Amino acid sequence: MAAGLKTIISLSFVLAIGFLLVILSCALFKQYLPLLVVATYVLAPLPNWICGRCANPDDFVESSGNAVVDFGRFCTGFLVVMGVALPAVLAHSEIIRIPAMIMSIVGGLLIYGTIISFGLFFQEEQEF
Asked: Which of 34, 51, 12 lies closest to 106, judged by CA?
């Protein structure tokens, strides 16, 4: 699948909408704690990437490094769930309002979805 200019433009548009929602959730209600969601979603793909590089299985042995890859997936899942749960906990404790929580969660999911989509569209093909 070849990724072209239209893919880059659409991904950047979705990323901009995600950042806009998170920033608006902070600015409209004058509470800037939902910006932590951006940090969790930006950091979420890093454990997968790092553990995928560290595992580096041999061509002859397919099962080597599965524990490292599983640990990276666990850390990524933890960060994604934390990105959704953090605004919910902040809204439950009445630090932020419910509309700010919704905008923060939707914006964060758009940001994370864009990062993952970018990685899927522009990954290098391995040649043997």
From this structure: 34
Question: Using an 8 Å Cβ cutoff, are 103 and 22 in contact?
Answer: yes
Residue found under tokens 């990323």: 15
pTM: 0.79
Residue type, 10: S
> Residue 73: which H helix or E strand, with range?
helix 66-92
Residue position matching structure tokens 């969660």? 105
Q: Answer yes or no: are the C-beta atoms of 35 and 111 closer than 8 Å.
A: no
97 C-beta neighbours (distance < 10 Å), count: 15
Residue with tokens 């999911």: 109
Distance of CA 22 to the CA centre of its chain: 13
Q: What is the pLDDT of residues 87-97, one digit of tens each?
A: 999 999 999 99
Cα 118 to Cα 109: distance, rounded to the nearest angstrom? 14
